[in-house]
Fold this protein.
Amino acid sequence: MDEQVWLVRHGETEWSRDGRHTSVTDLELTAKGEQQGAALRGRLELAFDRVVTSPLARACATAALAGFAGPDVRVDDDLHEWCYGDYEGITTAQIRETVPGWTVWTHDVPGGETGAQVATRCDRVIARCRSQRGRTLLVAHGHLLRVLAARWVGEPFAFGRHLHLDTGTVSVLGEDRGAPVIAHWNA
């Protein structure tokens, strides 16, 4: 593979544990989230050409616990989680009390981002990864990384609904005979 993009979803926070939509609220990791971050250290013993993280504390802390901290780690605002606007801090079940059948993949997010806006940010990240070649590690968030994987393989952002992603996991995007692939997911 000419290039690989390794994806890490940040460790558990109180809100990720409870299923609450978390974008702009800058939560710390729970004790379990810290353990997840530290456990990544042994799984990421590779040479990365670049390490890039979301600006949010939960992603930066996960990167640091995994062994990636300091001036060589870049922060990229395009890796910020999907902005949930009026739905920040509430669960899908709570949203569905007033908007039956709501999902971030199929409905509007009042006061937040559209899926197309998130896809545009992901496309910029992908373009930077592809232009630099080599192995990149991205540490970010659940919905954002699901959109990024969908866009990597040329699918619309909503394809991400089919890509469940747990906290503290590793996924790998790459190429197979010139075609973009999801090589490993949610490991």
Observations:
- Residues 115-132 form the longest helix (18 residues).
- The beta strands are 3-9, 50-53, 73-75, 134-140, 170-176, 179-184.
- The chain has one domain: 3-184.
